[in-house]
Design brief:
Order of helices and strands: EEEEEH
Number of strands: 5
Shape: elongated
CATH superfamily: Lipid/polyisoprenoid-binding, YceI-like
Structural class: mainly beta
Strand content: over 45%
Radius of gyration: 20 Å
Largest sheet: 5 strands, antiparallel
Distance between the termini: 44 Å
Helix content: under 10%
Number of helices: 1
Strand order of the largest sheet: 1-2-3-4-5
CATH architecture: Beta Barrel
């Protein structure tokens, strides 16, 4: 399973809507996740700034080709169609690419 975001919108205090492409079971579909609690920064063991958040969303497993199910003797089915997705995130600061490139250009060439 992988998720690649392509849009982030503020949805309140420490709340965001993150839209992107979710790939699961070799199928990619656009989804929007609710992200809450962008907490931090906290210094990590390696000295980097760490931030924490939780992303949640609902999706249909059948949209991703996960169709297996089994009828129960008492009625109903073993697996529901709707899936609650919850992802706990830990993120670190990343220096902007321009700063990385500028630093690389100012470094003397090694011989």
């Amino acid at each position: 399973m992988s998720f690649k975001s392509n849009k982030v919108e503020k949805a309140g205090e420490k709340k965001y809507k993150v839209t992107g492409d979710l790939t699961m079971h070799c199928t990619t579909k656009p989804v929007t996740l609710d992200v809450e609690g962008l907490n931090g920064p906290v210094k990590g063991a390696q000295g980097a700034n760490l931030y924490a958040a939780t992303a949640t969303g609902k999706l249909s497993r059948k949209d991703f080709g996960l169709n297996w199910n089994k009828a129960l003797e008492a009625g109903g089915v073993a697996v529901g169609d709707e899936v609650q997705l919850t992802v706990d995130l830990e993120m670190t600061d990343s220096p902007p690419a321009a700063k990385k490139e500028a630093k690389a250009e100012t470094q003397p060439a090694s011989k």
